[in-house]
Amino acid sequence: MNFLATLRIALAALRVNKLRSALTMLGIIIGVGAVIAMTAIGAGAQARVEDQIKSLGSNLIIVLPGNVTSGGVRLGSGAQLTLTEDDAAALPREVEEIEVAAPQLRGGGQVVYGNSNWSTQILGVTPDYLVAREWEVIAGKPFGGSDLEAAAKVALVGQTVARSLFGESDPVGETIRVRNVPHQVVGVLDRKGQSMIGQDQDDVVLIPITTARKRVLGGQQVRNRNVSTITVKVRAGADVAQAEQSMRDLLRQRHRLQANQEDDFFVRNLSEVLAAQEASSRVLTILLAAIASVSLVVGGIGIMNIMLVSVTERTREIGLRMAVGARGRDILNQFLVEAVTLSLIGGLVGIVLGAIASFAVGHFAGWRTETGAGAVLLAFGFAAAVGVFFGYYPARKASRLAPIDALRHE
């Protein structure tokens, strides 16, 4: 008996009991749909982490002020600014793995344009900051070294600030007041989105660090050319761990710390932190898919159960086929094709429902989802494998029936 004839007989047998066939496929439908939906949710979480990595920049190391002790009292982290612009300048000069080191002065305040105002983060930076963060200026131009030397009153605004102050208008060339100091907007930054801690990276105004120190932020940061943070970009292909250790050694030397003294700064390797988050998201994706796969196994057990019932009900039919020349292999193929057909039809319906469920989760829950072709093929292939695995035993049992005993079956 050829395959097409076997398939035609199998489909005819399934049509006889439409409701039972539909209920049998339900387990596979739910299983495949759950696998696709859960995989899409996990992939969306992983993609979100990857976007955060891209938004921060590659091979980043952040240096922050650390603990200091004054008069026997141990002050908290950042209580005193222990980093300077000279430290930032020394890092790329003394450590060959470092491409740029960008010092920053950090503060907050009101930014005003006309009748609009917005409370935002104000960063005093050098042009190297945009290089370190891989941050593009999509309108206008970035400020340069001459603006830095002249302490020019110019500013770059993030997307959130631009939208809040200017709406749909072009901010470039307009004048805003940053803490009551007028600045000309020379450029608009590209969108960065949320950071890994949920902070809006686009809610920021960048001004030259010299302007921030002399005209806007001032305070303790004026003295000794102190800075709040140093953002370091390691060269592509360089050993980040080696760069981190070299940085630590250099800063300890510059700060004249003895061997028994703690660092008065903190070094944070963002690549390691984000890589750990990405690995966690990947594990979450695998875990969700594994949990959803249990439904497929349950659906396979349902197929086996129904096929065993079908073999019992059609024992006389099997005996009659064998009596007129059908071989055991033909009977085996017939029941196996029935089981696989149930699984494949259920798999196709499950793919559609899974895609709909993924879209619904993304649309109504606001959770990012990504339905990949790999997940669809995996779920569909697994559904076919379930049909073969759980359909083989009933098919084999049917193929081994003795014709005479089968014809005598009541």
Notes on the protein architecture:
With 410 residues, this protein is α+β, with helices and mostly antiparallel strands. It has two domains: 3-52 and 276-408, no CATH class; 67-263, no CATH class. The chain is 56% helix and 19% strand. The strands form three sheets. The protein has a six-stranded mixed barrel with strand order 5-6-11-8-10-9. A two-stranded antiparallel sheet has the order 2-3. A two-stranded antiparallel sheet has the order 4-12. Strand 9 (175-178) and strand 10 form a beta hairpin.
Descriptors:
410 residues, 2 domains, 56% helix, two-stranded antiparallel sheet, 14 strands, alpha+beta, 19% strand
Residue share in helix:
55-70%
Strand content: 15-25%
- The termini sit apart by 27 Å
- Count of helical regions: 13
CA gyration radius, whole angstroms: 34 Å
What is the helix/strand order? HHEEEEHEEHEHEHEEEHEEHEHHHHH
User: Could you describe the largest sheet, including whether it forms a barrel?
Assistant: 6 strands, mixed, barrel
Arithmetic mean of pLDDT: 81
Structural class comes to alpha+beta
The 3D shape can be described as elongated
Query: Which strand order does the major sheet show?
Result: 5-6-11-8-10-9
* Total number of beta strands: 14
Q: How many domains make up the 3D coordinates?
A: 2
Low-confidence stretches: 69-79
Sequence-ordered SSE layout with sheet pairings:
Elements: H1 3-16, H2 18-56, E1 60-65, E2 68-70, E3 73-75, E4 83-84, H3 85-94, E5 98-113, E6 116-125, H4 128-133, E7 137-140, H5 145-149, E8 154-157, H6 159-166, E9 175-178, E10 181-189, E11 204-208, H7 209-216, E12 226-227, E13 229-234, H8 240-254, E14 265-269, H9 270-313, H10 315-323, H11 328-364, H12 373-399, H13 403-408
Parallel strand pairs: 6-11, 8-10
Antiparallel strand pairs: 1-13, 1-14, 2-3, 4-12, 5-6, 5-9, 5-13, 7-10, 8-11, 9-10
Helix pairs in contact: 1-11, 2-9, 2-11, 2-12, 3-8, 9-11, 9-12, 11-12
